[in-house]
Description:
globular; alpha+beta; 28% strand; 7 strands; single chain; Peptide Deformylase; binds nickel (II) ion; two-stranded antiparallel ribbon
Amino acid sequence: MRAMIKPILIHPDPRLKKLCAPVADLSDDLRTLAEDMLETMYDAPGIGLAAPQVGVLERLIVMDCIKEGEPEPVVMFNPEVLSSSEDQSVYEEGCLSIPEQFAEVTRPAEVRVGWIDMDGNPQEKDFDGLWATCVQHEIDHLNGKLFIDYLGPMKRQMMTRKSQKLKRELARG
Ligand code: NI
């Protein structure tokens, strides 16, 4: 069956501010959702997507930070940052739920992440570079946190207003 492209929620939306529940049972429905999320992410296009962005308040993220060459899709159920480097790095971040807006965010440069894969097996891996930023950004989504929450209140409000305006325009069609 072909994966389906899901509508992506645009900030502000209360579902983007919720703490998501751990996945207790890796059902076929959740595996299908993961495939749909990958399809949705590639279509957008984006490098990461979290389940709450498609309105599902469960701990699931998908990523692919390879910009050229073979795709490297990653699906993580219940992802958790196990340790973070003291070294920080700064990336200009964006978010499919806050379209067309970008800002520099400082985060640990390297993180060790644990998760459950599509087959239900536990995995652990170190991430650096863009992957490290992306996985932290996506895990934040599962805790109701957006990248604009790292910015000062003025900038956050400005970006929220712009996003709200875009959302109204999209709704009008
Ligand atoms: Ni995002």
